[in-house]
Amino acid sequence: MSHSSAVPGYRQLFALTGPWFAPVAFVARLPLAMAQLGSLLLVSGVTGSYGAGGLTAGALAVANAVVAPLAGALADRVGQRPVLLVQSIGAALALLALVLTATPGRPLVLVLGCAAIAGALLPQAGTLARVRWRLLASRAERPRLTETAFAYEGAADEASFVLGPALVGLLAALVAPAGALLVAAALVVVFGLAFALHPSATLTRPDRSLPTTTGGGPLLPPGLAVLLLAMLGVGMVFGSVQTGNSVLATAAGEPGLTGGLHALLGVGSVLAGLLVPALPARWTLRRRLLVSAAALLVLSLPLLAVSTLLPLSVVLLVLGLSIAPTMITLFSLVAEVAPPQRITTALTLLAGTTGVGYALGSGLAGRLADWGGHTPAYAVTVAAGALAAGMALAAQRSASVPQRVADRVDAGASGPTTTR
């Protein structure tokens, strides 16, 4: 697997959309990455209670995980543009309301309500971009570019969840936590609307030529449940690792390093994700999932032995190498399993499952950490890796999970379809 063999695929991929699509879609996902930590810092600072801040951040995250598939289903029915227009404006207003209501003396239930509305409306730009890339690659008759697109989007998601919290921390230090949420509101208006109005959004209009029987098929086709459980495991890895990192860093007298430690996981994941298109084309999606999920389990085991921050840093960087390949392959498989008329629904459901897993992993690891410190918290990470690996093994035996081998990109194929 080499960096140079992946570069031509990325060049051809970005030629499909023109120069603005990728940067607009990337910035459009930052508000979601910023809002959870921003709301936690804001409410904790105003109330003096980390519990209230955690409840607010949790309300935002859970609402997004629950409502995103519903928004995806609506986008499948009417197209992405109208859904994104409403989401972008509504999310900005809800974030503004959250800032205005998070003041001393205001009922916490009002703050939680604003946070939940903001979470429900914040668009999952990365998932919606994947749908557009898939349609563009299909029209250009370059199916291998779908794999490249999902690899790029996986890396972009990881980068956003490193950059977003870092931006929140910087703004909270220089201005105030409220300033971070106001910036998130401004970004979702400007870049959310730009993403909605990009010409590629017209590709997601319902295709009336598709058989109506597909549209009436089950929301959870056979095989999708196994893939969702695998992604639940990946989400639990994120949540439990962050909790374990916080406990270990605090015990070492360096609680401020928690964010940096978690960022190392993202750095390894971004690097591996960008190189996924260079994997041998003979590897089936099932095989890729099994190898990457098994690596997730094996590379998480050293967490049970770490007791200082330097070894932990190395383990996290290496563990990150298994995360993006696992997530990218899961998105590719779900795109194959889902009925064409419900592709956005399925992909947003998969993305929402990550959030549910994060909350579950964080909660379990926190309870165990209260009992026994960082090692029991990291035990949740290992168990989550075992869940992902077990579901990957189950996918090998499922006739409803496709084997597909991605076609290689043919540099001499017909020119790309450009939407400008």
TrEMBL record:
Its main location: membrane. It comes from Desertihabitans brevis. This is MFS transporter. GO terms for cellular component: plasma membrane. It is found in: Cell membrane. Coiled coil: none annotated. Residues 1-400 form the Major facilitator superfamily (MFS) profile domain. Keywords: Membrane, Transmembrane, Transmembrane helix. It is a multi-pass membrane protein. The keyword Iron does not apply. PROSITE patterns: MFS. PANTHER family: MAJOR FACILITATOR SUPERFAMILY (MFS) PROFILE DOMAIN-CONTAINING PROTEIN, PTHR23542.
